[in-house]
Amino acid sequence: MFSRGILFPGYGSQYVGMGKDFYDKYRVVQELFEEASNCVGINFIRLCFASSEKELAKPLNAYLSLFLIQSSIFTILREHEIVPSLITGWGVGQISTYYNSGILNFPDGLYLLKKYMEFYESLVLGNDVAMVSIKGVDKITFEKCLRDCAVEESIKVAIIRDEKDFVIAGRKPAILILVGFLQKNFDIHVMPERFTYGIHMLFLNKLIDGLNCYLEKIDCKKPKYSVIDQSGSMLRKGISFNKLWLTQFMHHPIDLVEIVRQLNKVDEIIQIGPGDVTLNVVKKCFPHKRKICIKHKSDLKELL
Question: What confidence score (pLDDT) does residue 216 get?
Answer without folding.
Answer: 82
